[in-house]
């Protein structure tokens, strides 16, 4: 009897010592954060766009964590600055992968994505990028997904606008000589050929270029019916200022990078009249988008741009798809996004319906816009290419 009691007491004591350790380990596992690596342009020529992306992603994560996280786990984001340099971006992706993230956000610049995407692919970590270069999603990478429409999708909508609304017979094309610009240049030339619109001038410019006087002269001298401008935000603003200075009278048409809020801020009244296709706009006539815009402005004291919307929506799309899966599994997440759709019914803060195809290209509604009195005005909603 005495022996039994001592044995039982020893067992109880051992259980008492073991149980807290077990409970602690379980609690620790449940509390382990979901890691997101944000590899983005925080300095260099892409800093303006990259900072908006980072800020919106941070806002989304704070909102998600305040509501209990994803599947009961908090989300932790770490920023890595690419310095808008492809070589640096590759090193930063490797550094980010050492931290074993669930997903990677960024970069935005196509050249950087092309330089680093194979690292995320080899690690089997989904990578959501803002890059538009058409070739990126046709290189056989099952882990690369766009947060932005591809150049092909955007240029098809622009071509229709130039042909049907502006009724241009010829255009001058002004483009930036980098991976982003080359992809857009090839895509717009293809669409113009299909539409029967003549290329009156084909003008290559450089990333970071400060003086556009000679380029504007060349474009004017070609006597086009419109000028298509496809460059980075800061260079687009400089071109607009020079075009106003030289009295360019024909329509200035572009994509999101010509009509974004930062371009408007930098170009001032020279941005008025610029028009074209925008993949996303904080001025879209959608209540959820307008609520995002107001919350972003309240938090950061500046209006969000298209990059901010991309990052915000990407974070919430990841949340929605993860909760649909019911588990945090990078490989399963990538598989789910191929042919997958997220909607505001699943998660209100994805803002708009979005679908991804087998290549990782996103399809959603987009917009025709014009800058009026220093503000982007939405002229029309353009439906998704596929329903």
Oligomer: single chain
State the domain count. Answer: 3
CATH classification class of the largest domain: Alpha Beta
CATH topology of the largest domain: Rossmann fold
Average pLDDT works out at 91
CATH architecture of the largest domain: 3-Layer(aba) Sandwich
- Count the strands? 15
First-last Cα distance: 78 Å
The main pleated sheet reads as: 7 strands, mixed
What is the helix content?
40-55%
Total helical segments: 13
Catalogue the unreliable spans.
Answer: 1-29
- The secondary structure category is alpha/beta
CATH homologous superfamily heading of the largest domain: Response regulator
Work out the radius of gyration.
24 Å
Task: Indicate the overall shape.
Answer: globular
Order of helices and strands: HEHEHEHEEHEHEHEHEHHEHHHEEEEE
Instruction: Going across the biggest sheet, name each strand in turn.
Output: 7-6-8-9-10-14-15
Beta-strand percentage? 15-25%
Describe this structure in words.
The protein is an alpha/beta fold and 387 residues long. The protein folds into three domains: 1-31; 36-148 and 286-356, Rossmann fold (3-Layer(aba) Sandwich); 152-278 and 368-382, Rossmann fold. The chain has 13 helices and 15 strands. The protein has helices at residues 2-31, 47-66, 86-98, 110-123, 151-166, 179-195, 213-221, 233-245, 256-259, 261-267, 287-300, 306-325, 330-337; strands spanning 34-40, 75-81, 103-105, 127-129, 144-146, 170-176, 198-205, 226-230, 252-254, 275-278, 341-342, 354-356, 362-363, 366-372, 375-382. The chain has a seven-stranded mixed sheet, sandwiched between helices. A five-stranded parallel sheet has the order 2-1-3-4-5, with helices on both faces.
């Amino acid at each position: 009897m005495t022996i039994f009691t001592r044995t039982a007491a020893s067992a109880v004591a051992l259980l008492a010592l073991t149980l807290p350790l077990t409970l602690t380990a379980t609690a620790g596992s449940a509390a382990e954060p979901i890691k997101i690596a944000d590899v983005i342009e925080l300095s260099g020529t892409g800093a303006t766009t990259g900072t908006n992306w980072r800020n919106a992603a941070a806002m989304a994560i704070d909102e998600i964590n305040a509501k209990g996280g994803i599947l009961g786990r908090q989300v932790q984001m770490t920023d890595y600055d690419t310095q808008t340099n492809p070589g640096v971006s590759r090193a930063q992706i490797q550094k980010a992968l050492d931290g074993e993230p669930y997903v990677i956000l960024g970069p935005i610049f196509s050249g950087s994505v092309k330089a680093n995407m194979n690292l995320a692919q080899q690690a089997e970590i989904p990578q959501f990028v803002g890059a538009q270069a058409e070739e990126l999603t046709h290189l056989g990478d099952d882990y690369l997904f766009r947060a932005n429409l591809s150049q092909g999708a955007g240029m098809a909508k622009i071509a229709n606008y130039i042909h049907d609304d502006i009724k241009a017979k010829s255009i001058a094309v002004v483009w930036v000589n980098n991976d982003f610009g080359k992809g857009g240049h090839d895509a717009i030339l293809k669409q113009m050929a299909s539409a029967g619109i003549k290329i009156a001038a084909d003008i290559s410019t450089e990333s970071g270029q400060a003086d556009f006087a000679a380029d504007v002269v060349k474009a004017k001298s070609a006597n086009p019916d419109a000028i298509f401008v496809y460059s980075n935000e800061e260079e687009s603003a400089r071109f607009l200022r020079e075009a106003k200075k030289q009295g360019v009278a024909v329509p200035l048409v572009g994509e999101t990078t010509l009509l974004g809020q930062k371009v408007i801020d930098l170009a001032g009244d020279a941005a008025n009249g610029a028009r074209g296709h925008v993949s996303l706009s904080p001025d879209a006539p959608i209540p959820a988008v307008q609520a995002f815009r107001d919350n972003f402005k309240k938090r950061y004291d500046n209006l969000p741009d298209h990059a901010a919307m991309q990052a915000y929506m990407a974070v919430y799309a990841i949340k929605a798809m993860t909760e649909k899966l019911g588990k945090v599994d990078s490989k399963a997440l990538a598989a789910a996004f191929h042919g997958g759709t997220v909607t505001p019914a699943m998660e209100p803060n994805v803002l708009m319906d979005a679908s991804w195809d087998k290549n990782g290209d996103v399809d959603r509604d987009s917009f025709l816009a014009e800058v009026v009195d220093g503000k982007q005005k939405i002229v029309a909603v353009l439906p998704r290419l596929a329903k």
